[in-house]
Amino acid sequence: MHYLSYFGFLLLGIVVTAALLIGFMDVVRGTPIKTVGSPGQGNCCPSVDDPFFRESIELLTHVKLKPGHEVEFFINGDQTYPRLFDDLRNAKSSITIQLYFANKGKMADTLQGILIERAKAGIEVRFLHDAFGTTLKKAYFKPLQDAGVIVNAFRPFSFKSLQKAQHRAHIRVIVIDGTVGYTGGFGIDDKWFGSGRDKDQWRDTNVRFTGPAVRQLQATFIVCWAEASSQLLTEDTLFPPNLRPEYGGEIGAGGILASVLHAAPTIGSTPAERFFVLSIAAAREKLWISNSYFVPEMAFRKLLCDAAQRGVDVRVLTVSKATDTKSTWYAGRARYEELLTGGVRMFEYQPVMMHAKTIVVDGQWLSVGSMNADNRSISFNDESNLVVLDEGAGARMEEMYLEDLRYSEEIKLDEFRKRGWTDKIAEHACHLVWRIL
Prior knowledge:
There is one protein chain. This protein has helices spanning 2-27, 51-61, 77-89, 106-120, 138-147, 213-229, 271-282, 298-309, 326-333, 336-341, 375-380, 391-405, 413-416, 421-431; strands at 66-74, 94-99, 124-130, 150-154, 173-176, 180-184, 202-203, 206-210, 256-263, 286-291, 313-319, 345-349, 353-354, 357-361, 365-369, 383-389, 408-411. The chain is of the alpha/beta class. The protein has two domains: 42-61 and 262-436, Endonuclease Chain A (Endonuclease, Chain A); 66-247, 2-Layer Sandwich (Endonuclease, Chain A). α4 (106-120) runs parallel beside α5 and α7 packs parallel to α8 (298-309).
């Protein structure tokens, strides 16, 4: 009996240790892609003006680029929220909202009032918020629910769902009447008000669009809603019949070519990883990235340096000490020397927290959305990005980028190497845990 007890405890210990190890390996997992093309061929990714680039993106990231879009970019809250609130107030049939971050304040109160009024007017309103990112309390949601707004939390914490705790819905989705879509880096918090240039404000890039991609954005919401509510939505208020292909709603060569990338976590290579890899490898002249939490893994950094070495103007605009998360900033700075030595130009936005997540390649291929250049976004989170293949939209994105550089400081290698030893210790300490930041 004594020996049976001993071996029973030993077996239990082995099982528990194995479970903990499996859980740890899952928490710190990354993505596998290191190169583009076959060994010895070098970079053989098609350029963005090659028709095969579009096909590659569609096949490997599961986006479907279609014509017929109108796109508006917003660089701050002063541009975003008046337009957004006006669209919400004029909703005729449905409103769907999915947000990662929402906090109390004037903006939250304004949104609450609009949604209550629309719900009482008979509009179908659904609000899906991430259980981790949202700090709004039950007292905020109760008046919404009393008015008829359907509210759900995405992946609330419980013992039964511990395996999903690190996988968050970092998505930004707002769809009005199934015809107008918004995504970007925005949330509901008063820090998003303003110009994005003054103290206590956040600089962000958001996008409003119409066209076939709105239906893709709606589908992104519905996929997450199905998990949170056990209900898969298909009604006409969300997908208006007059916009379906049989009515000619998605046919025609006019307008901007665009799609929505819903990057969802998988075991192994993710759509987010493949999007970044293809976009970097496609660059021939310019590769300009804005990203608030810029902590790319080694293979990502090598691809950026390879692009610079083949003559591409590679620029990365990220946060400064005005960041809201110092650990992520330090972790990113731990690899600045590697990037600068490889020819990548690094800039830090000085006035305030820079929260934008954009990329523009050769003035034609671009993305605006919620996806950061860190392991959490690429491996663990659901993300939403509007991707566009259009020279006019690319030119506007480049203009916005150059305007931001006026408020930024370029990091020079010689000066950066002179930073204090306390900064270097903080950088390397934070980089040890970069995968989970």
